[in-house]
Amino acid sequence: MNSAILHNGKVVTAQEYNVDIHGNRIFCIDRSCKVPVIYVPESELTMSYFKKTGKNDSKHKPNCGFFKPLDFIDSIKK
Ligand SMILES: [Zn+2]
Residue 60 C-alpha to ligand 1 middle, in angstroms? Predict the structure, then answer.
């Protein structure tokens, strides 16, 4: 995702995010979800962006726009 919410409720984009300014407590943009996310710096292949931490408690809520059901891949194979 390209945007995240800071601990103070402000929205920051990956392009303007700076850990020294914004801190490292950043969350999913969907206010009903707010799963912790981490910043991924830009590389030769991708722009900078935010993603889930990958920990067990790091899952988007089902009503979050970034939530994808686990059977998503299965359903497009059929
Ligand atoms: Zn989410």
Answer: 4
